[in-house]
Specification:
Elements (H helix, E strand, L loop, with lengths): L2 H6 L23 E3 L26 H6 L3 H17 L4 E3 L22 H16 L4 E7 L12 E3 L2 H8 L1 H10 L3 E4 L3 E2 L2 E2 L4 H11 L5 E4 L7 H7 L11 H11 L5 H18 L14 H12 L1 E5 L11 E5 L24 H7 L3 E5 L11 H10 L6 E6 L18 H10 L5 E6 L14 E4 L7 H10 L12 E2 L17 E3 L8 H6 L4 E3 L10 E8 L3 E2 L3 E10 L5 E10 L10 E11 L4 E9 L4 E4 L4 E4 L2 E8 L5 E9 L38 H5 L3 H17 L8 H12 L2 H8 L3 H11 L4
Parallel strand pairs: 1-2, 2-3, 3-5, 4-6, 4-16, 5-8, 10-11, 10-12, 12-13, 13-14, 19-27
Antiparallel strand pairs: 6-7, 9-14, 15-17, 18-20, 20-23, 21-22, 21-26, 24-25, 26-27
Length: about 750
């Protein structure tokens, strides 16, 4: 090995938890920091996720997505980028644009949507907003990382057409339109190959097809075999608390397993990243000014969704007497748990904001947010309070126990103590449900509630935003970026999501989210794109620039009018309707949207363009997106449920009724004979988890027990159900033993002994 290569090789292997390697002072070291809804900057040596510097907590991606506002997302990202610049952070680890395959995914609050078109547009805005400040981003988690259950060891089995049209489409959009500085390869396997070792994903698609020139970084601990990873297209392993992997890389060079050209290409990409984003290389060192709280407030207002408003009970006149019930009124849940948890100065309080706004507030806690069991005393106090007959503002929804990184939800229901209390409050006053949570849930007694205002996880300014919306100071304008189903059994991947198996089959194929419910006419609580306002809107005058599309684009124009007596914003949505055929395909697909602000009585013309991609499928034989011949529909309206305008256009392309093979969902590219559930003695390795190895190794079982005690001692005073504790425990139990060793300081010889012991015949 050449001496110059030996000196630069550590560039591919980070230094500590949050920094790239400086190669003994040869290069500046980049500081990478968690996001994506605020800056979670930590110093080396920080023991827990919540041990981070104070910064602004903005709304999570699930809330931002409900704004359908690219400029607002860019504005939030710009503010995060400015805070990162000021903190000398080089790369913010976000945004997350994985598709919401199931509403039960514990990390859905960090992702934008179930729809790749919407996720791609908002992800592009986010990356552009951060990077315009000279700070890089890390687009994640690449790819098909759609559940938290055994996220480090599960194998996502996805056919190529579904992969391209659903799970990669948003990544493709962001890569081509915004050029993110880095892309984070996920923990999971994809069709038999670990994402960090998946040449088809990281090189053939990402680099060769999409033209990506940036750095591919591993999710924290996702790199197991550095030689295989770099050969597949990975550039940077994070974190690195041991030299074990670097030595493996050096040995791989000596053994001829990897050539110097491959290594030099990866090193070159790291050098360009450092040159562009190192804090030491910045031309200006001035502090960038940002109004963090005000921007967080604007985003929370834009992403809140009014789901119900019977008899126009909202807005509530100021001075009104209100019974505020629910622990989440004072302990507002405004962000999710895990690696995105932000330490912030502002802690929202609904009751305080209501009082400041002039309401006469009575408060009862009603339930505890740290359990689902009923507290009889708290419940009795709430019921007694409600006897005065004043309107009830019930503050509830998903608590920290329900959703978070590292674990998936078990149910669509909110905690039992809330459901029971809501039922008992019926008849004691009009109930307005002010709800919080990063994902859909079943709204209890929905038909008997007067109003439902969902704030998602709205960041540190969410309480003020909620009161501004309840009072009518601001008109709600958010719309759902995900379907709210009626029952978990009705969801498309029910039975093949977060099961006991490591083999996760995406049996629903293309039919994710609204594509499934709409095509199969399945009733839902609230459809994709749905949201109410305090005013009304009308649509008219839909026009297409051409009636036949053989190449180029078609312009779609229409008018939207505010037909009510209040100023407000409408989110106009454009969907295509696929020609009927024998090949698989959803009935409607989102292909355009625009948020329009209108004064009372004002009308504006809206224009968008649809290109060939809007009328194409991924042809697995041609290995590209290809237009589908036939008569397509284009419909426009305020939600998927209520399209108002309709036109047709003839598209010239391939007739997949005559040539259906390329449109079928039977093409899988990968190691399709692999089965991660069927590991036999002689085949255990450092890729297996401590849980798996402990079944055949007494040493592994001992290590697991000791490690669990150490983890619980780290979080002394916190319950085992605490989100941060659960995330750490799940990583320890179900993460590859190599990952545990690299981050936990376990001697690698002990790891090798455990694997060897597991492989002995008994």
């Amino acid at each position: 090995m050449k001496e110059e290569l030996r000196e630069k090789l550590p560039l591919l292997s980070g230094k500590g938890m949050w920094h790239t390697n400086d190669c003994n002072g040869k290069y500046p070291s980049l500081h990478l920091s968690d996001g994506p809804h605020g800056l979670r900057r930590q110093e080396e040596g920080a023991r827990t996720n919540n041990d981070s510097y104070v910064s602004t907590c903005y709304p999570t991606a699930s809330c931002l997505a409900a704004s359908w506002d690219e400029e607002l997302v860019r504005k939030v990202a710009d503010s995060i980028g400015k805070e990162a610049w000021n903190a000398k952070v080089s790369v913010v680890l976000g945004p997350g644009i994985n598709i919401k395959r199931s509403p039960l995914c514990g990390r859905n609050f960090e992702y934008f949507s179930e729809d790749p078109f919407l996720a791609g547009k908002l992800g592009t805005a986010y990356v552009g907003g951060v990077q315009q400040n000279g700070v890089g981003t890390s687009l994640k988690h690449f790819a098909a990382n759609n559940q938290e259950t055994r996220r480090m060891t599960c194998n996502s089995r996805v056919d190529e057409r579904t992969l391209r049209e659903i799970y990669l489409a948003a990544f493709e959009e962001v890569v081509k339109k915004a050029s993110p500085a880095t892309i984070m390869a996920s923990y999971n396997y994809l069709n038999g190959y670990k994402a960090t070792e998946n040449h088809h994903l990281l090189t053939e698609i990402l680099r060769n097809e999409w033209g990506y020139e940036g750095v591919v970084v591993s999710d924290w601990g996702a790199c197991i075999d550095p030689v295989s990873s770099v050969k597949a297209g990975l550039d940077l392993e994070m974190p690195v608390l041991s030299k074990v992997h670097l030595k493996k890389l050096e040995k791989g060079i000596e053994n001829g397993e990897i050539d110097e050209d491959t290594l030099n290409r990866a090193i070159g990409r790291m050098e360009r990243l450092i040159e562009t984003y190192a804090a030491e290389n910045r031309k200006g060192s001035e502090t960038k000014e940002t109004a963090g709280y005000d921007i967080a407030l604007e985003a929370a207002l834009g992403g809140a969704v009014l789901l119900k408003n019977r008899d126009n009970i909202l807005p509530l006149s100021k001075g009104t007497e209100i019974n505020v019930i629910g622990s989440l009124a004072k302990k507002v849940r405004f962000q999710g748990g895990g690696s995105s948890h932000i330490n912030t100065v502002s802690h929202p309080d609904i009751t305080a904001e209501l009082e400041t706004a002039g309401y006469r507030v009575h408060y009862a806690e009603g339930y505890r947010e740290d359990t689902d069991k009923t507290d009889q005393e708290l419940e009795a106090e709430a019921l007694t309070l409600a006897e005065n007959g004043a309107p009830i503002l019930f503050c509830g929804g998903l608590t920290d126990l329900a959703e978070g990184e590292g674990y998936d939800r078990k149910t669509l229901e909110i905690p039992e103590n809330q459901r029971r209390l809501i039922k008992k409050l019926e008849g004691r006053g009009d109930i307005i449900f002010l709800s919080f949570g990063g994902s859909p849930f079943i709204i209890p007694e929905k038909e008997k509630m007067k109003a439902v205002l969902h704030m998602y996880l709205g960041g540190e300014a969410v309480a003020k935003a909620a009161v501004m919306l309840l009072s009518g100071d601001v008109n709600p304008s958010g719309k759902l970026a995900e379907t709210w189903p009626e029952d978990i059994k009705c969801t498309p991947c029910h039975g093949c999501f977060a099961t006991s198996s490591n083999e996760v089959f995406y049996k629903e194929g293309l039919f994710v989210g609204y594509r499934y419910y709409d095509t199969n006419e399945i009733a839902v609580q609230f459809p994709f794109g749905y949201g109410l306002s305090y005013t009304t809107f009308g649509y008219s005058d839909l026009k297409l620039s051409k009636n036949v599309l053989d190449e180029g684009k078609v312009k779609v124009s229409f008018k939207v009018k505010n037909t009510g007596d209040r100023a407000g914003a409408e989110i106009a949505q454009v969907y295509t309707i696929r020609p009927e055929g024998r090949y698989p395909g959803a009935k409607h697909e989102l292909k355009g949207f625009k948020k329009i602000f209108l004064k009372a009585g004002e009308e504006k013309e809206v224009e968008t363009e649809l290109d060939e991609r809007a009328f194409s499928i991924y042809d697995t034989l041609l290995k590209r997106f290809n237009p589908v011949q036939g008569e397509w529909g284009i419909c426009v309206g305020g939600s998927l449920e209520s399209p108002t305008l309709f036109e047709t256009i003839k598209v010239k392309g391939t007739d997949y009724n005559e040539h259906p093979a390329g449109a079928l969902l039977s093409c899988y590219i990968g190691k399709n004979d692999s089965n991660l559930d069927m590991v036999k003695p002689g085949h255990y390795s450092i890729y297996n988890s401590l849980t798996e190895l402990s079944k055949r190794s007494w040493l592994g079982k001992l290590l697991l027990n000791i490690a669990l005690k150490v983890v619980y001692s780290m979080y002394k005073g916190k319950p085992k159900e605490d989100p941060e504790v659960m995330m750490t425990v799940e990583g320890l139990k179900d993460g590859p033993i190599d990952c545990v060793a690299m981050q936990g300081g376990i001697p690698y010889k002990l790891v090798e002994m455990i694997v060897k012991q597991a492989n002995r015949k008994k």
